[in-house]
């Protein structure tokens, strides 16, 4: 245990500033997702609870070094629908707890292996699409428009707007004060990312994002006295719930309604949350591991267990469902985080700020936080990524670009599903072509054709092998060699046997098989 603690604290000088940046990114996201998910301002704290649990509880249990968990925009529609179906937030919390239990069971049943079957091109497409989504969704906040802070990651939003109409409205209804703050913030973030600034010891420990937030607050205070027409207020500032007493603070926490255990609808919602949250977490794990500069592998079964325990905890104390979230994880990586201490620190700061300084946090303009996310988005979707994928050829580039376009035009899970279909098509196409090696030798007595089967011959190869056998010339000899095959599916054996017994004799073809169990060695005429 002591060795583990040493590992956690070894990189504190890197993890503390990264955790601070993740906190600045996560705070408005927690509030935005809570408002979008519940539609109720009195339940904003449910997003903070989920963020704290995702940071501290999941952070401690998870095997992911850089993944950050919390409430996810991908679950917004599911939560909204569930609240309408169940009729009570307390009954919904019961569904979250049950969903967590199902995730823990799935982890122990080793269902996390699913995470290893997402093609690399699709994962990279997801990262690029999220980067573009961040840029497109944060521009309205940088311009001082759209109070829904990243509540909608999908193209079409529940308020009737979409990504592009929001951009149009951002320009039409822009705020001078917000534009100035976001422009100054972007300039500072670019400056802090230069080698010169990184050499200064102070800025190695305190991230540029912290100074950006402080300057954003100061600028808005200056506006309030010198340029009142530019001042930002209300929806354009962080709106953390402020309790006037300890009893009011504890009233923010809710408990599940266990009397609803007999309701079938609770289990339907729980299964839905468990499946979607697990898929989003596994996708995020794959993406985070690809971004990790140290290329560490996250144990996916342990991740499901950690996410499940996180959801059980969150549901028991009034929080939203949790997943690992790529936006926060990538912010952690981009800020130089090295271990899971970054996510634990972000959760701890989130808790402390909610308890002790919510009043002061509410001075922070969303436009300077938007600038931080714009930089994160740019780092996720650099032009060099597209160049690299294009150089890999169409089998990698097409699924990659289709995933990007699909996510941008629908939402995360639908886009991933479309990208997976395209990637699987290319995999099947390649598998179809490379199930065997074809060799033809011409002899006076007829052609001798050798089909050397590959190591793994599955039902996916049935079509290509069957087509080749059907097109063999009459009066020839064919040798089907499976001596190098480790496994040949029954479907393929059946085709070979049927060809030997029925088709080959009719066309005067001699068939010889080698190393194929379950098929007689010689057949034909």
Automatic annotation (TrEMBL):
Keywords: Membrane, Transmembrane, Transmembrane helix. It is found in: Membrane. InterPro entries: SLC26A/SulP_dom (IPR011547), SLC26A/SulP_fam (IPR001902). Pfam families: Sulfate_transp. Residues 12-402 form the SLC26A/SulP transporter domain. One of its GO terms (cellular component) is membrane. Its main location: membrane. One of its GO terms (biological process) is transmembrane transport. It is a multi-pass membrane protein. The keyword Magnesium does not apply. The keyword Transmembrane applies. The chain crosses the membrane at residues 16-36, 43-63, 75-102, 114-136, 173-192, 204-224, 265-285, 305-327, 339-357, 363-380, 400-428. This is SulP family inorganic anion transporter.
């Amino acid at each position: 245990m002591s060795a583990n603690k040493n590992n956690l604290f070894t990189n504190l000088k890197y993890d503390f500033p990264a955790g601070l940046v993740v906190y600045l990114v996560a705070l408005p996201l927690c509030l935005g997702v809570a408002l979008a998910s519940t539609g109720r301002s009195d339940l904003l704290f449910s997003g903070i609870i989920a963020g704290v649990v995702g940071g501290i509880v999941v952070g401690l249990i998870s095997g992911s070094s850089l993944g950050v968990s919390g409430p996810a925009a991908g679950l917004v529609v599911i939560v909204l629908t569930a609240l309408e179906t169940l009729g009570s937030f307390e009954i919904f919390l019961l569904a979250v707890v049950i969903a967590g239990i199902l995730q823990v069971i799935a982890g122990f049943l080793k269902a996390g292996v699913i995470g290893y079957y997402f093609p690399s091109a699709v994962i990279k497409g997801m990262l690029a699409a999220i980067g573009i989504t961040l840029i497109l969704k944060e521009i309205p906040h940088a311009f001082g428009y759209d109070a829904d802070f990243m509540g909608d990651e999908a193209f079409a939003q529940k308020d009737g707007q979409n990504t592009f109409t929001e951009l149009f409205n951002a320009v039409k209804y822009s705020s001078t004060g917000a534009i100035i703050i976001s422009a100054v913030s972007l300039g500072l973030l670019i400056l802090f990312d230069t080698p010169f600034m990184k050499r200064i010891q102070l800025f190695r420990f305190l991230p540029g994002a912290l100074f950006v937030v402080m300057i954003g607050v100061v600028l808005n205070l200056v506006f309030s006295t010198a340029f009142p027409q530019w001042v930002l207020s209300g929806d354009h500032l962080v709106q953390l719930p402020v309790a006037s007493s300890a009893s009011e603070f504890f009233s923010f926490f809710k408990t599940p309604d266990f009397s609803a255990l007999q309701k079938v609808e609770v289990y339907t919602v729980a299964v839905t949350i468990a499946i979607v949250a697990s898929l989003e977490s596994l996708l995020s794990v794959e993406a985070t591991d690809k971004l990790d500069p140290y290329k560490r592998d996250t144990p996916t079964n342990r991740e499901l267990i950690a996410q499940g325990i996180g959801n059980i905890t969150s549901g028991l104390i009034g929080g939203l469902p949790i997943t690992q979230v790529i936006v926060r994880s990538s912010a952690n990586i981009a800020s130089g985080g090295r271990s899971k201490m970054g996510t634990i620190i972000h959760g701890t700061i989130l808790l402390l700020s909610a308890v002790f300084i919510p009043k002061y946090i509410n001075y922070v303009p969303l436009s300077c936080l938007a600038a931080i996310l714009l930089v994160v988005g740019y780092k996720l979707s650099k032009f060099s990524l597209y160049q690299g994928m294009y150089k890999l050829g169409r089998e990698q580039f097409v699924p990659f670009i289709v995933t990007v376009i699909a996510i941008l035009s629908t939402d995360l899970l639908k886009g991933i599903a479309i990208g997976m279909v395209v990637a699987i098509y290319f995999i099947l196409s390649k598998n179809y072509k490379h199930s065997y090696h074809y060799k033809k030798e011409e002899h006076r007595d007829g052609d001798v054709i050798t089909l050397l089967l590959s190591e793994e011959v599955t039902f996916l190869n049935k079509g290509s092998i069957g087509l080749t056998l059907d097109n063999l010339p009459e009066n020839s000899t064919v040798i089907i060699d499976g001596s190098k095959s480790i496994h040949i599916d029954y479907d393929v054996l059946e085709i070979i046997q049927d060809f030997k017994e029925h088709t080959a004799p009719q066309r005067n073809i001699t068939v010889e098989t080698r190393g194929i169990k379950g098929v007689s060695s010689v057949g034909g005429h």
